[in-house]
Structure formats: structure tokens, C-alpha cells
Specification:
By secondary structure, the chain is of the alpha+beta class. The protein has 2 helices and 2 strands.
Length: 56
């Protein structure tokens, strides 16, 4: 879903940049899909091209 490594996701969680997950069981960790979608939407609005113009 995201083009980054699991280590990056966990680092972002620790830094407060990515939504915190919650446990469904001992070996099951999940994220709230709506929170992840909000994160993606907020990041996609910040993407810029090389010349500084925002991409659609």
C-alpha cells in the first residue's frame, strides 16, 4: 500500500508521523484504514515536481 519499508513505517510511528497501530491479538497488529488513508491524502498533497510546482 505504501512504497516504503516496514522499518520506515515503524520509525514514522515512533516519530508521530504515521498513525499508531493497535493489536487484535498476540501476533496481529493493524492500523485504522481511515487514518492511513488520511495520512496518504495529506502526503499526496505535499508532492512537488522538480521545478517546485505541485503535481495533481
Amino acid at each position: 500500500m505504501l512504497p516504503v519499508s516496514p522499518a520506515t513505517i515503524w520509525r514514522w510511528v515512533r516519530e508521530g508521523k504515521f498513525p499508531k497501530p493497535f493489536k487484535l491479538g498476540d501476533a496481529v497488529t493493524v492500523w485504522d484504514a481511515a487514518e492511513v488513508e488520511k495520512f496518504i491524502a495529506s502526503r499526496s498533497g505535499a508532492i512537488q515536481t522538480v521545478n517546485g510546482n505541485r503535481e495533481a
